[in-house]
Specification:
The structure holds two protein chains of two kinds.
Chain A lengths: L2 H10 L7 H12 L4 H11 L3 H10 L11 E6 L2 H5 L2 H12 L12 E6 L11 E3 L2 E3 L7 H9 L14 E2 L2 E2 L8 E7 L2 E10 L2 E7 L2 E2 L4 E3 L11 E2 L20 E6 L3 E6 L7 E4 L7
Parallel strand pairs in A: 1-2
Antiparallel strand pairs in A: 1-3, 3-4, 5-10, 6-13, 7-8, 8-9, 8-12, 9-11, 13-14, 14-15
Helix pairs in contact in A: 1-3, 2-3, 3-4
Chain B lengths: L1 E5 L2 E5 L5 H7 L23 E4 L6 E4 L10 E3 L3 H17 L4 H9 L19 H9 L6 E3 L6 E3 L14 H5 L25 H4 L16 H5 L1
Parallel strand pairs in B: 1-5
Antiparallel strand pairs in B: 1-2, 3-4, 3-5, 6-7
The chains are: A alpha+beta, B alpha+beta.
């Protein structure tokens, strides 16, 4: 557990009673559960007693005090699913995963849960694995659902997914290429720029795959810090044409051939990016 | 001042008074369990139900949390109130049949038996100890945990709280668990008093730093 990170989350939120849930949600999103030390830290920083925080954390089913698996399988046990045999599906999952509902496999891969209604009664028995709905589940499909869940349904294949494409980039000011074949990211040459932070300029490498968002840097910039980005060739600051649609921080533009720009958010941790197809006017 | 009718008697009390306070001031007894002066009203036990309004619009409310309203008609001992109160007593008895406090209330209200399966819980979740700890002892060492069937009172993570001073205030106010003994689990203890009462326990080292609210306290003897 990273104390700094949790302090950061608490600092960003309000300190009143109503904000506790938001803080806990954010911690849970980061660590998949609420570590004891994190709850103690929240109590200390917000000025509420630990019993209050613990009461909230145990009241809501969305919070877990035990580490959860990487993947979450929820089996609906609502009335409609139940009469269509959801209990048999739960038993099958219990048998296949060898854990009870609410438990996590020893390898920390899969958590099994039962929920009371997913609101998709016509599709029952319903199983949700990592946000993907499986309708009319039969016992025979259980094994397949587990296998697909383990394969990470969310994972995007950079080779075959046509939502991902590679962009050769250059500096909009000096037009020098920013591609760095010596340090590949996502299996392709990375985009090398400089970031000014901690009082000096450090190299920052971005994935050249549009939408990947992978970043590598030698001296990590603190999370949420907005730092200016520079071209390593002409040493000029990359121009800003837009503000980030995600967080409102200024964006930095990189030149994509024929004058259109790939703009990236300058706030560390923000994945805001856009492709500006207008001809950028540098004058 | 607010004017209202209390059991047919026209009275006027200060704004912000609860029905319970007004009724007690004018001498109408209302039984309570989770109410204690000096602690914020909580309305958990429902023993203090009274009937307000008239005709078909009359409803039962908990008098300890209901502030008086202008022109309100309150009945503290109508047929409906007494029936509801007896039912509540039966339910309390079913969950904590061994509690002396609840047995006394039952006998006062002529409840001789109850119809429900006995649970033998040691807590009715009235919240007295939680409020005592937070409001009078300024500690906040114990609180409610979980929800619904799993709701319980205790320290976070079920381990000895850093802010607990072992004052025993929680056990002092508790109507259900007068003898909730933590002797077997000293790491969860909020009192330790019971452990000090019989000589064999005094030998046990884990109780040495405990203080006993009971009198006579023999914790000091254990130190010798």
């Amino acid at each position: 557990m990273d104390t700094e990170n949790i302090l950061e989350i608490i600092k960003r939120s309000d300190k009143n009673r109503g904000a506790i849930i938001a803080i806990l949600e954010e911690i849970q999103a980061t660590y998949t559960y609420l570590p004891e030390a994190a709850l103690r830290l929240v109590a200390e920083e917000t000025g509420h007693s630990l019993t209050d925080i613990y009461g909230v954390a145990t009241f809501y089913k969305a919070f877990s005090l035990k580490p959860r698996g990487k993947h979450c399988i929820s089996v609906c046990l609502g009335t409609a699913c139940h009469v269509r045999g959801a209990q048999a599906i739960v038993d099958e999952f219990k048998y296949e995963l060898k854990i009870a509902p609410g438990g996590t496999t020893p390898d920390n891969e899969i958590s099994l849960e039962t929920v009371n209604c997913l609101g998709a009664c016509a599709l029952g028995p319903t199983v949700v694995a990592d946000g993907h709905y499986f309708p009319h589940v039969t016992k025979g499909e259980v094994r397949e659902i587990i296998a697909r869940t383990k394969e990470e349904m969310e994972k995007i294949n950079t080779e075959t997914d046509d939502r991902i494409f590679r962009l050769p980039l250059s500096c909009p000011l000096c037009k020098a290429s920013l591609m760095d074949p010596d340090h590949p990211l996502d299996g392709h040459p990375s985009v090398r720029i400089d970031v000014s932070a901690n009082g000096r300029k450090n190299p920052l490498r971005l994935s050249s795959l549009y939408g990947s968002g992978a970043v590598a840097m030698e001296d990590p910039v603190p999370l949420n810090q907005v730092s200016p980005l520079f071209c390593p060739h002409c040493d000029e600051e990359l121009p800003s044409f837009s503000i980030c649609p995600e967080c409102g921080s200024p964006m930095a533009a990189l030149l994509v051939r024929a004058g259109c720009a790939w703009e990236i958010c300058t706030r560390r941790g923000c994945r805001g990016h856009l492709l500006n197809l207008n001809q950028i006017n540098l004058s | 001042m607010i004017n209202l009718t209390l059991n047919g008697l026209s009275i006027s009390v200060e704004k912000g008074t609860t029905i319970l306070e007004a009724a007690r001031f004018y001498g109408f007894p209302i039984p309570t369990l989770c109410h204690k002066e000096g602690l914020t009203p909580y309305g958990a036990c429902r023993l203090c139900v009274v009937e307000i309004g008239k005709g078909p619009g009359a409803k039962l409310v908990s008098s300890c949390t209901y502030p008086v309203e202008e022109g309100m008609m309150v009945r503290t001992a109508s047929e409906r109130v007494l029936r509801a109160r007896r039912m509540i007593i039966e339910l309390l008895l079913a969950s904590c049949p061994q509690s002396k406090t609840i047995q006394d209330i039952a006998s006062r209200h002529n409840v001789r038996q109850q119809r429900f399966r006995q649970e033998h819980e040691d807590c009715i979740l009235c919240g007295l100890c939680v409020r005592m700890c937070k409001e009078q002892m300024m500690a906040g060492a114990i609180g409610f945990r979980g929800r619904g069937q799993n709701r319980s009172i205790g320290t976070p993570f079920d381990i000895r709280s850093d802010v607990c001073r072992l004052c025993g205030g929680c056990i002092e106010v508790c109507p259900a668990c007068q003898a909730r003994c933590t002797y077997n689990e000293p790491e969860k203890a909020v009192c330790g008093g019971c452990a000090n009462l019989s000589p064999p326990c005094i030998e046990k080292e884990q109780f040495h730093d405990m203080m006993c609210y009971m009198s006579p306290c023999v914790a000091c003897e254990a130190k010798k």
